[in-house]
TrEMBL record:
Keyword Cell membrane among UniProt keywords: no
Species of provenance: Micromonospora citrea
Name of the featured protein: N-acetylglutamate synthase, GNAT family
A molecular function (GO) term: acyltransferase activity, transferring groups other than amino-acyl groups
Record Gene3D superfamilies: 3.40.630.30
Family annotation (InterPro entries): Acyl_CoA_acyltransferase, Bact_Acetyltransf, GNAT_dom
Keyword vocabulary terms for this entry: Acyltransferase, Transferase
Residue ranges annotated for the N-acetyltransferase domain, each copy included: 3-146
Length: 149
């Protein structure tokens, strides 16, 4: 397994993000609207197994100096192997390298596995923020990152 940076224009990142959005629409019964798929201002990481990207996640800088984890997704056939946990750790390291002292994220109330992952990795609930405020299914979390000595 390899975790590497990929541009937002990478076709495998685009494929994973489309799959993530499709799965979210299926899980919420079509309640949420279509989100913009990829953003040029997100730094993406891909998890590569046997030469194929099987998971992705991104980090976007926030105006307050923090970072936001975006587009976490692991292909269903690769779940349960600890890939999401390793990817989240790599995203936190990326945030730390870019000077972020805090990372936050949004997920949905109907994604208990995601909520379990984030809370088990030290994320704590915070008030819903930004574009998620009006979404009744959004829940947000944050984690302080260690400060360099």
């Amino acid at each position: 397994m390899l975790i590497e940076t990929r541009p937002a224009t990478d076709p495998e990142i685009a494929t994973l993000v489309v799959a993530q959005q499709r799965e979210l629409r299926e899980a919420d019964g079509g309640l949420e609207g279509q989100a913009t798929l990829t953003h040029d201002d997100i730094r993406y990481l891909a998890v590569v197994v046997d030469g194929r990207a099987v998971a992705c996640g991104g980090l976007q800088a926030l105006p307050d100096g923090g970072g936001e984890v975006k587009r976490m997704y692991v292909r269903p056939a690769y779940r349960g192997r600890g890939i999401a946990r390793q990817l989240l750790s790599a995203l936190e390291e990326l945030a730390h390298q870019h000077g972020h002292r805090r990372v936050c994220l949004e997920t949905a109330t109907y994604l208990p596995a995601a909520i379990g992952l984030y809370t088990s990795c030290g994320y704590e609930p915070i008030p819903v923020y930004g574009e998620y405020v009006d979404n009744p299914y959004s829940v947000c979390f944050a984690k302080r990152l260690p400060v360099s000595a």
